[in-house]
Specification:
heterodimer; A: 282 residues; alpha/beta; 7-stranded mixed sheet; 6-stranded antiparallel sheet; 7 helices; B: 362 residues; alpha+beta; 8-stranded mixed sheet; 4-stranded antiparallel sheet; 12 strands; 21% strand
């Protein structure tokens, strides 16, 4: 038997780092391309909400959500430096080679949301997986109703993709509401948790025919879900991507198993109705 | 399936035939009760045991090694060469018990089923030949913790072996072929034609052997139902969890546990290897993410994860076989007495009692 690389689901394909953009403290965006154009082409069919396994040889592999939309020309990761492998990614220079395999996971079924209002609620780096949907919605603006983004971080310095948020607001006719937990001297905007934005004067969130995308740290997730349910959202109209430790991304290693689901295969996108049933701490 | 007769003294000749083109593993006695699977050599050939307590360390490692190299990674000229490393060696396990045959079948369902196939497992499995020996001796083959009757995996495997041997007394074994490869062994001169009388003897012995199992908890299906219907009280789960010492022993001896972790390590100045190792949901770091957040902190969340995963109907449907084969190893190694049989008993007892009280209170 002469195995070809295509046989091996765990085999990372080589990619070259093209450029790096500093976002906020400890968070950078890494633009890259596969060395083999065929790999690049195959990968570009990904869906918003999917993820990839990133290999930094010698340091290990980690799952990273895909912030670009398939409607964009480039692929990149936005990654916070939190562990051994992400630290090693942050050490890479443009031109360096690393490994990528994927895309994996179910992704957001964007076609299903056609004709609906979209409400994006993000906390901290939870905006990374939602960026893909937002840009996708912007590229197909005519397909969707009202689009709102509610985004919060601990401090103004920790608001991710800030220049982009303004750009999207202007180009796409989105409503974009920002908040921080702790203001600094230059901050003129809203202060408070993300949920408090829903009650800001002048803000009306439609709950009929609306899908809410929620992504952020567990504590924010719990409170935002409570707010949304109180506002009248159905549990099937609230969707999120779950974050879990993963070693394989293809339903074998067992690390991401929650309740009866494997996050890598059955997710990472789940409706709140599904999340409730999984019965574990998010 | 065809059956043949073979004299007890000739059984070892099957090993000799297999050794011509296979690495053959067989069970041996270590010190005291210790038993283990090892590679058969000219030196240890005569010490192979047909009747023996099932070794703790399961033969699953011949398809899913404790530690296995996945790639060799070489850094050169600013890029990398990544080379998958596969084990294509032909192996035979001689004397594998019926529960472990079922264990390997479960791994087949898990690693080769669904959307993705595991290439390392697939290669090892394709080159594996299984000679099942049926547990018939109540003194050595069957121990107090065996409960394959409840999982319907023994004492005689019904399928998924290449050859099955069963001691039918009078210095004779009945051999049953389970695959074309197994059947081709019947060309060997030491196999003789079996008569209906031999087959009848096999049937009789099997039905007698069934009475020699002590831990015959018939509560398996009720427990599967309670877990799947979410009827098990949090209190019961917590009680099971509180008895767990988090040693991970149950998962390391389990022939049906599948979880692994992956890590890179250096093998030279510009060389690395990516390896995978058995991992266990009972261990603290299993779900811990970079940055320290661990969604599954409480001991009982982790401890009970294993029982939930093995007994919830969803997973049985998903993999088409139950992730417990009734070998009883987890019960033997557990210091807190929360192996599978006692856990099933605890869940069944507590839940039945609770449900009875609940209906009386109405």
């Amino acid at each position: 038997m002469n195995p070809t690389p295509a046989d091996n689901i765990y085999l990372p394909k080589l990619a070259r780092l093209e450029r790096v953009v500093d976002e906020i403290d400890e968070v950078r965006t890494f633009f890259w391309r596969f060395l083999d154009p065929a790999d690049q082409k195959a990968f570009e069919g990904f869906k918003p909400g999917q993820f990839a396994q990133v290999s930094i040889f010698g340091a290990g592999e980690f799952p990273a959500s895909l912030p670009p939309s398939p409607t964009e020309k480039e692929v990149f990761f936005t990654v916070r430096r939190v562990g051994r492998a992400t630290e090693a990614l942050h050490q890479l220079q443009p031109g360096d080679v690393f490994g990528v395999r994927g895309p994996y996971g179910n992704g957001f079924p964007m076609e299903q949301y056609a004709g609906r209002n979209l409400v994006f609620v993000a906390g901290g780096i939870g905006l990374i997986p939602l960026r893909s949907c937002i840009v996708y919605a912007l590229a197909h603006r005519e397909k969707f109703g009202k689009i709102q983004i509610f985004y919060g971080a601990k401090t103004p310095k920790e608001l991710l993709y800030r220049p982009l948020l303004h750009e999207w607001e202007k180009a796409g006719g989105f409503e974009c509401h920002l908040t921080v937990d702790r203001a600094d001297n230059g901050w003129q905007g809203h202060t408070g948790v993300v949920g408090s934005l829903f009650r800001k004067p002048g803000v009306t969130v439609p709950t009929e025919n609306t899908t809410a995308f929620v992504c952020g740290p567990p504590v924010m997730f719990r409170f935002v879900i409570k707010d949304l349910l109180e506002m009248g959202f159905k549990d099937t109209d609230i969707v999120s991507t779950l974050e879990r430790y993963m070693k394989c991304g293809v339903g074998k290693c067992g690390h991401c198993c929650i309740g009866v689901a494997y996050v890598c295969m059955d997710g990472p996108v789940f409706t709140y109705r599904q999340i409730k049933k999984l019965g574990e701490d998010i | 399936m065809r059956a043949r007769l073979i004299a007890s003294d000739d059984v070892i000749k099957i090993v000799d035939v297999l050794r011509r083109d296979h690495e053959v593993m067989a069970p041996f006695y270590g010190r005291g009760r210790d038993t283990y699977f090892d590679t058969v050599t000219d030196e240890n050939r005569d010490r192979i045991q047909l009747h023996i307590p099932n070794p703790y360390y399961p033969p699953k490692r011949y398809v899913l090694p404790h530690i296995e190299q996945m790639f060799r990674i070489r850094k050169a000229d600013g890029s990398y060469e990544v080379q998958s490393t596969y084990d294509e060696k032909k192996r035979a396990i001689f004397g594998i018990r019926s529960c472990d045959v079922a264990g390997i079948h479960h791994l087949d369902r898990f690693y080769l089923g669904r959307d993705f196939k595991d290439p390392y497992y697939a290669r090892r499995r394709a080159h594996l030949f299984l000679v099942n020996v049926v547990c018939t001796d109540p003194q050595v083959d069957i121990n107090d913790e065996c409960y394959c009757l409840c999982t319907d995996t023994g004492p005689a495997a019904k399928a998924h072996f290449d050859l099955q041997l069963m001691d039918i007394g009078h210095g004779e074994y009945l051999a049953v072929a389970g695959s074309a490869a197994g059947e081709s062994l019947f060309d060997q001169p030491f196999f003789r034609k079996a008569t209906p009388e031999h087959v009848e003897r096999r049937r009789k012995i099997l039905s007698e052997v069934r009475h020699n199992f002590k831990a015959t908890t018939g509560w398996f299906s009720a427990t599967v139902r309670y877990i799947s219907q979410e009827k098990v009280l949090e209190k019961t789960w917590a009680e099971i969890g509180s008895r767990c010492l988090e040693c991970g022993g149950c998962t390391y001896v389990c022939p049906a546990c599948t979880c692994f972790t992956v890590t890179d390590r250096p093998t030279g100045p510009n060389e690395f290897e990516r390896v995978r190792l058995w991992d266990a949901c009972a261990l603290y770091g299993f779900t811990r993410m970079a940055g320290g957040h661990n969604p599954r902190k409480a001991v009982h969340d982790r401890r009970n994860r294993r029982f939930f995963r093995k007994l919830a109907h969803y997973f049985i449907q998903r993999e088409l076989s139950m992730a417990c084969v009734g070998c009883g190893r987890c019960a033997e190694v557990c210091h807190g007495d929360v192996g599978m049989p006692s856990t099933i008993e605890m869940i069944r007892r507590a839940t039945t009692e609770y449900l009875a009280h609940e209906s009386n209170a109405r």
